[in-house]
């Protein structure tokens, strides 16, 4: 540990800077229940766009990620390395076929994610509303790591 713990305000600024980074990727975890009743977690890396305080990802409509998220309505996302992590718990707000999405999502996603799914068939934009956001670097930042609770910045 070389730096002093960041204030909540600094962590929020750092988190927003990370979320708006061009071509940023995120690990997204979803889950489902198998036929035998056991939990089936699923983790995948995806491109992310942060648009109007929402996480937007694009996935194939038939993907396990899309199915899990549409069925459960919840996901957990992680950005950054383990010693400077941002964790987001989010709820699915809407799923939009790429060809029917409004221009602000289409252009915003393509601009930040550095990828445009309009050229590929069968893709959806999944718009996620953050419920809780946590950020910390080291053990000295564990206290106060929650930056958003119940969808509201603290």
Automatic annotation (TrEMBL):
Gene3D superfamilies: Electron Transport, Fmn-binding Protein, Chain A. It comes from the Bacteria. InterPro entries: Split_barrel_FMN-bd. This is Pyridoxamine 5'-phosphate oxidase family protein.
